[in-house]
Amino acid sequence: MSSRFVTPRPAADPGVKVVLGPTNTGKTHLAVERMLGHSSGLIGLPLRLLAREIYDRIVRALGAEAAALITGEEKIAPKSPRYWVSTVEAMPLDLNPAFLAVDEVQLCADSDRGHVFTDRVLHARGREETMLLGSDSMRGVLQSLLPRADFISRPRFSTLTHVAPKKLSRLPRRSAVIAFSATEVYALAEMIRRQKGGAAVVMGALSPRTRNAQVALYQAGDVDYIVATDAIGMGLNMDVDHVAFASLRKFDGERWRELSAAEVAQIAGRAGRHMNNGTFGAVAELLDGISDEIVRAVENHAFPPISVLEWRNRELDFRTPEGLVQSLEALPADPRFRRAREAEDLMVLKTALGDSDIAALARAPAALRQLWEVCQIPDFRKVSPVDHARLCLRVFRFRVTGSGMIPADWFDRQVTSFDRVDGDIDTLAQRLAYVRTWTYAANRPDWLDDPEHWQQRVRAVEDRLSDALHERLSQRFVDRRTAVLMRELRAKDKLMTVIANDGAVAVEGHHIGALKGFQFVADATAGATDDRTLRHAADKALADEIARRVAACAEAADSAFAIAYADDIALSRLTWQGVEIAEFTAGPSALKPKIQLLPSPLLAGEAARRVEARLEAWLAAHLESNLKALHRLGAALDSADGIAGLARGLAYRLHENLGSLPRRHVAQEFRTVDKDGRRQMRQAGIWLGAATLYLPPLVKPYPARLRLLLWAVHHQIRGLPACPPAGLVTIPTDKVVPAAYYEMLGYRPIGGLAVRFDMLERIGQAAREKAQIGPFPLDPLLMSLVGVSGEDFTRVMHHLGYILRAPSETEAAAYLERLKAPAPAAPPAESTPLPESAPEIITETAPEAATEPPAAEPTPEPAAIAEPSAALPAETPTAVASPPAAEPAVPAQLFFREEPRERRHGHRHKKSRPARPAKPDRQPPAEAAANKTAEKRHKDKKPFAKRPARPERPARNLEDSPFAVLAALKGQLKKK
User: Fold this and answer.
1) FRET label pair with 477: which of 161, 300, 878, 953, CA 20 to 30 Å apart?
2) Top-confidence residue, 75 or 184
3) What pLDDT does residue 889 have?
4) Where would I find the beta strands (DSSP E) of 411-482?
5) Which of 434, 395, 391 is nearest to 415 (CA)?
6) How far apart are CA 747 and CA 726, in angstroms?
């Protein structure tokens, strides 16, 4: 199908006036004034929003009967209106008014809507006067098209100046932020709400009623910012002082492209109304800036002239479908015009004619006209072109079949399905888009029976949805409380601020946050309470309250302060009157942590130092009160009459470790301490245990937790588990947790569990008393002390120097002899009771007797014992039944006391494997060990004379020990 050429010819132009100039020149105001001076008039405007603004202005001046409003979605027409306000697309050209005006005629070059504006410039005329309003870039082409027109230039009332990019948080009041997608608009509005209190939202996709409400919100001063698309650029009159571009790219229906200088000027021109100067620039976070070329063009209002106008043939051929399409695709014969790109209505028409059924229905000229009318339904829904075409064709079938009207019940179902106000912003906006389609249909005079009824019905639904959408937008993007406060602050020099007894802060009766301690905590529901201006108003009143609190804190009793322990104990804080005000940081030593006030701009300088000094004094007294034993030990170390000699070094290490040391770590040093040194240590409150040297009062729950806090803060260790409940004798251990964690809590890690210091010493004391007689079996009483059995209990005993193994024949015989013989009185364990000056130990946690072993027989060091797994049997019995008295039996396994082995390197001890039963052709384990030691000494070539002599051990009663039995057997064999 070939296209034919058509020569566009403008209508006669007597009385045509062309008013040209930049934005804010009063062109639209002039046209309205001229229209009201005539007996009748019609004005076409580029936006529904602007049309509604002009209509409302005329109604206020002349009354509702004097004016009508016609848009694609809205029709308000009294019986005989004098003046008609319309969008350019909906202008009723059959009225023949005395005055006619078309605004923003530079849109003749717009690729989407341009052909409509070109048609109005060429053919829309008033009887007495016609006025075309637009940019000065249209001067040349309009002079060539309308040579008899009267051209009038209008200067801009105010100056428009470019400024450097500004951050969103630093935008001045009465600013408009421009973006080109709903996603960007919503994101920017949300950011402004958080930082500035709120923003209005204006987009072309919103219904007129919603946009009007949003603009009113801005104009009333409830918000100082508006986020919009280029919809505000077409004559929308608002009090904008600054326009900030978040982007200079827009989607024009086919592709993303850069804005032209003229388009930037059209939008930026909203800044500065009437005589007030305006500025424009970029949003610093989102746009690097605006090019110098565009800036010069906008500031000087100098743009390339428009020489080619978009055009589409208005003389349509409805005789055949092919002729209609051909006429719509006709090319202009004049080079000043360019055929418009295929519009949405033409695409729908082609889709419809591709359907054989529709094509058959549209063969008659009247039906073809109806099809073309239906194809011009705007695609408000923006679902898909195919879906929109399907909807249009459904309406066309109604128009050409049956009564020729859209069925009322079907139309009612369509409208009712969207008559709901629940849902979020996107849901309501989508429903509005669907309803706007039916609003357009209802405003067609011959599509429905009783069109006025349906217009009111659809209008009511659209109004409800529009109001609900406006409310959702306001709820999401406007913090009304802060907006009101900001407005009141501008009206007053100082706002009334009230601080309640519970710290709640209210400004002008609006709750904005709370004062907790010395920190102001903004209300979580107030999105912009941290705005500098609003906070400054509150800070004036808060300063006096902070001064009062500083004085009260400095003079507060010790009972007002406490430590709020956190699950991650290093994050614990100091509280005053139950409110956290400071945290701990590492100091010169574990016992002297530093105190750091929680950051607060309200507390600084001398006031902060005064609070810190009071907290430091309280903490020192608190530590001394709850760690008395540790402070007493420190005093003994500082005293000239205190601990001296080798014992002093051990005591100093114990003090540095906050009151406990694993004995295995200091075994060598401890052996060198004489009796007098040990006595001094005991007098200082140190418990000289078989597994631990410690200060017993520190095992209590609160001192233990305090020790852990000091240790974690000093070593800056985070992520520790919460403290175990008080009263537990054993707790499970975690491999990723430092062993010192359990040490500080008063537990000794052993394998997969940790045993409390005092209970571990009780077991050691009881085991030692049993070992004085000889090897002994598993004892349920011992297991009950720690609440474990089986392999766990075997590990505990192994840590104390006892190995569970099967006895040899000789050892078994000796054990039986001991059972048969009358039980001799067990010699008392050599121990030294605590002096009266030692710390008091609660019965439930203190060992029954001192567990320091005799000097002549030092306690085996756990480090010299092999790993428990090497000595544990596959199945360890939890208890051994007592054999009948008449027939004593040897248990399968007995606990044996292991002797320590010296290592060559210093005080450390090599882990030894558990002893095995002697084989007939091998030496006994004791002799083999002695030979190995001799061989090592020979290899090292260290003469015996250079080694220090061991102190003689006191004689022991070995009559009942297995070693005595073994020695007797050896003697008998030698005699034979």
Assistant:
1) 161
2) 184
3) 79
4) none
5) 434
6) 12
pLDDT band at 513 (very low <50, low <70, confident <90, very high): confident
The conformation of residue 854, written as its DSSP 8-state character, comes to: P
| Contact between residue 816 and residue 971 where contact means Cβ atoms under 8 Å apart | no
DSSP annotation string for 552-584: HHHT--GGGEEEE--SSGGG-EEEETTEEEEEE
Burial environment of residue 653 by CB neighbours within 10 A (0 to 12, 13 to 18, 19 or more): middle
Task: Note the pTM of the prediction, 2 decimals.
Answer: 0.56
What is d(CA 201, CA 228) in angstroms, rounded to the nearest whole number? 6
Write out the H or E segment, with its range, that includes residue 688: strand 687-688
CB 466 within 8 A of CB 213: yes
**DSSP SS3 for 225:** strand
Residue 915 identity (one-letter amino acid): A
Helix axis angle, 261-268 to 292-300, nearest 10°: 60
Question: Would you state the pLDDT for residue 916?
Answer: 52
Backbone angles phi, psi at 506, to 5 degrees: -125, 135
Both tokens of 217, joined, read 């919100």
**Beta carbons of 280 and 298 less than 8 angstroms apart:** yes
Least confident of 322-326, 347-351, 493-497, 877-881: 877-881
119's CB contacts (< 8 A; 6+ apart) are 311, 312, 314
Residue 495 binned pLDDT confidence (cut-offs 50, 70, 90): low
Burial label for 300, CB within 10 Å (0-12, 13-18, 19+), is exposed
Determine the Cα–Cα distance for residues 834 and 460; give it in Å rounded to an integer. Answer: 93
What is the rounded CA–CA span in Å between residue 397 and residue 360?
11
Question: Residue 919 pLDDT > 60, yes or no?
Answer: no
342 backbone dihedrals φ, ψ, rounded to 5°: -60, 115
Structure tokens at 212: 């009007």
Q: How far is CA 55 from CA 84, 129, 273, in A?
A: 8, 20, 20
Q: Do 462 and 71 form a contact (C-beta atoms < 8 A)?
A: no
Model confidence at 461: pLDDT above 80: yes
535/527 Cα distance (integer angstroms): 13
For every residue of 503-558, DSSP letters joined together read -EEEETTEEEEEEETTEEEE-TT-TTTT-HHHHHHHHHHHHHHHHHHHHHHHT--G
